[in-house]
Amino acid sequence: MNTSYPFTSQSSLLKLCPLVPPRLVGPIRVWMDSPSFLALQKLYPYLEPGGHGQPKNCRSRHKVAVVVPYRDRDSHLRILLHNLHSLLTKQQLDYAIIVVEQVANQTFNRAKLMNVGYAEGIKLYMWECFIFHDVDLLPEDDRNLYSCPTIPRHMSVAVDKFNYKLPYTAIFGGISAMTVGQLQSINGFSNRYWGWGGEDDDLADRVSVAGYKVARYPAPIARYKMIKHEHEAKSNPVNKCRYKLMAQTRTQWKVDGLNSLKYEVVKHELLPLYTHILVDLLENNEHKAIKRAFKC
């Protein structure tokens, strides 16, 4: 056991969990209510601080960090935590939920928050798999395993908002799963997408140019409900630079990503239900430079 990590690892003497978790049933109930954090703590009292869960009677086959980029959606977060802790426990995962929150009064940068989630997450535990998860997507089937196969996995294949159909073939947004090695080989996400749009297609391009194919479960399994909400036009305006940025992905991905990530952690807390990282993404200089360069 590596005592330098804040999370406790499982005993190597425990037998491995079954290849297929025994309690899976297929379609599951999706909870759309948002219990208080205190009520959720009573529902999931076995979690280690930081929202770290492990099977009690066997050694998990998967060490998974679920990274949730977040701002201003408290009720959505509580709904997601309720649904995910129930599912991930049943799937016998060694997991934690890492919520990366951006400070107020900055343009939202979802992809950069994902990079921060990875950079801070690897300090917590010996994760093998990172799942990047929008706060408003709720799984409908427990056979949709939150683990990483040998190639990157797009998980949110069939979302009710899109009539449970893939909007377009190359989509890699919503929820995606990648191993540590895969993330490093694509240099993570771009840091340059301030506002709404473009970062998912940039990520899909990175995955493709690095030579990976994308895995997907069949649509009847990879089903999600989306929590209804209004678009936050002020904090998350449409990114007018997105098409110009996307045109550069294949030439810039090696220098824009994990290896160019700059941020400041404002707060780092191991809360009962999740790890909370409040972060300043240093928008001022970076965003202005992009607007000047692209005249957008």
Automatic annotation (TrEMBL):
Its cofactor is Mn(2+). Pathway: Protein modification; protein glycosylation. It is found in: Membrane. GO terms for biological process: carbohydrate metabolic process; glycosphingolipid biosynthetic process. Residues 17-149 form the Galactosyltransferase N-terminal domain. It holds the Pfam family Glyco_transf_7C. One of its GO terms (molecular function) is N-acetyl-beta-glucosaminyl-derivative 4-beta-N-acetylgalactosaminyltransferase activity. Its main location: membrane. InterPro entries: Galactosyl_T, Galactosyl_T_C, Galactosyl_T_N, Nucleotide-diphossugar_trans. GO terms for cellular component: Golgi apparatus; membrane. Residues 153-230 form the Galactosyltransferase C-terminal domain. It is a single-pass type II membrane protein. Keywords: Disulfide bond, Glycoprotein, Glycosyltransferase, Insecticide resistance, Manganese, Membrane, Metal-binding, Signal-anchor, Transferase, Transmembrane, Transmembrane helix. Belongs to the glycosyltransferase 7 family. This is Beta-1,4-N-acetylgalactosaminyltransferase bre-4. It comes from Angiostrongylus cantonensis (Rat lungworm).
